[in-house]
From TrEMBL:
Complex formation: Component of the Sec protein translocase complex. Heterotrimer consisting of SecY, SecE and SecG subunits. The heterotrimers can form oligomers, although 1 heterotrimer is thought to be able to translocate proteins. Interacts with the ribosome. Interacts with SecDF, and other proteins may be involved. Interacts with SecA.
GN (gene name): secY
Protein name in the entry: Protein translocase subunit SecY
Keyword annotations of the record: Cell membrane, Membrane, Protein transport, Translocation, Transmembrane, Transmembrane helix, Transport
GO CC terms: plasma membrane
Organism of provenance: Thermomonospora echinospora
């Protein structure tokens, strides 16, 4: 692998892409550390350290994961990539129910460009809403209850300035992600998400080493490597449905007669179900922080702890449900069967048309079950570690973080591998 990396840097155009991607990552991390005008960074730091091992720390841990620590600093890139991810998911779901968007999706590159433009507009709208809510909570002392003076001024001009700066930061993040996609290596948005998640790993490792000692740190690293190997194995697993294309004459030329397959991944839904489930469970936690004196919130609060069995069960059930839901709306067996029939393709032993759609739906349902269970179990790892081993909220391996790191890492390595193979190099896979 090290030899392949060396060869990649020896290739001039590939080296430029890798260096450009690293440059964008550096710019992104600088923006994540640059505070928004009017923010008292020292007060925020003390508030976060004071709440790290309290109930408030659960909310901070989730925020830290998706922003790389930027949101807890109220930095220029405080919103991170989450508004874009949310907008992309919303547009993807609306494509199923709005005929206009479904028609655009079928138009090819022109339709995809239009949907991308809608995603950008929706991202800016969501960024304005999120920035307004975060700044308002910081100004009223609800975001950091232990430090109500996180803003030097709370006048309207300061609040509007912070909202504009954070929204502009989201726009810059979108631009940086598209630059990486066009001129760098890998999917730009995925690379930036990967950067946000990995950015908090050193602090988490150091916290484990300082609080638990060298033996616990080594044990966590070994368990982490084992979990990572298992995630890689499942992420690569797929069921290949064989497809045969019949020979046909078009003019004087013969087409078809080839064999291929439809790859159905075990984890067909990716990380989206975990994000959905985490977002839904995040809402009641946020509600308890906004209305701590409400009697219903007081009764609900014990069930929102990470080490609570009911919390784990609901989280696991949400992941199972959203896995089936997302797979159902993103993979249409009827459409796939119709396209195969249109071009003369068929699955050996299965009649074209409706029987093919029913067979694909049957296979997809069977392989989605282990995929959903896998997502649920991996996502429960930090909660189980917190309950059984009294681990901190910064447990690095497991849950959303390990899924993002492995998924984006595999995708980026595959893209580098394909470019190396185009230049007659061995690449990473031997």
């Amino acid at each position: 692998m090290l030899t392949a990396i060396t060869r990649a840097f020896r290739t001039p155009d590939l080296r430029k892409k890798l260096l450009f991607t690293l440059f964008i990552i550096v710019v992104f991390r600088i923006g994540s550390q640059l505070p928004t005008p009017g923010v008292n960074t020292e007060a925020i730091r003390q508030a976060v350290e004071g709440a790290r091992n309290s109930d408030q720390g659960q909310l901070y841990g989730l925020v830290d994961l998706f922003s790389g620590g930027a949101l807890l600093k109220l930095s220029v890139f405080a919103l991170g990539i989450m508004p874009y991810i949310t907008a992309s998911i919303i547009l993807q779901l609306l494509t199923v129910v709005i005929p206009r968007l479904e028609a655009l999706k079928k138009e090819g590159q022109a339709g995809t460009t239009k949907i991308t433009q809608y995603t950008r507009y929706l991202t800016i709208g969501l960024a304005i809403l999120q920035a307004t809510g975060i700044v308002a909570m910081a100004a009223t002392g609800r975001l950091f209850p232990n430090a109500p003076d996180v803003l030097y001024k709370t006048d309207m001009f300061t609040i509007i300035t912070m909202v504009v700066v954070m929204t502009a930061g989201t726009s810059v993040i979108m631009w940086l992600g598209e630059l990486v996609t066009d001129r760098g290596v890998g999917n730009g948005m995925s690379i930036l998400i990967f950067t946000q998640v990995v950015a908090v790993f050193p602090a988490q490792f150091w916290a484990i080493y300082k609080t638990k000692g060298a033996f616990a740190f080594a044990l966590v690293m070994l368990v982490g490597l084992a979990i990572m190997a298992g995630v890689v194995f499942v992420e690569q697993a797929q069921r290949r449905i064989p497809v045969q294309y019949a020979k046909r004459m078009v003019g004087r030329r013969m087409y078809g007669g080839t064999s291929t397959y439809i790859p159905l991944k075990v984890n067909q839904a990716g990380i989206i179900p975990v994000i959905f489930a985490s977002s839904l469970l995040y809402l009641p936690v946020l509600a308890t922080q906004l209305w701590p004196e409400n009697k219903w919130m007081i009764k609900l609060q014990p069930y929102l702890q990470q080490d609570n069995a009911w919390h784990m069960a609901v989280f696991f059930a949400f992941i199972i449900f959203f896995t089936y839901f997302y797979v159902a709306i993103t993979f249409n067996p009827t459409e796939v069967a119709d396209n195969m029939k249109k071009y003369g393709g068929f699955i050996p032993g299965i009649r074209p048309g409706r029987p093919t759609a029913e067979y694909l739906d049957y296979v997809l349902t069977r392989i989605t079950t282990p995929g959903a269970l896998y997502l649920g179990l991996v996502s429960l790892i930090p909660m189980v570690a917190f309950a059984l081993m009294e681990a901190t909220n910064d447990f690095p391996f497991g849950g959303t973080s390990i899924l993002i790191v492995v998924g984006v890492g595999l995708d980026t390595v595959k893209q580098i591998e394909s470019q190396l193979q185009q230049r007659n190099y061995e690449g990473f896979l031997r």
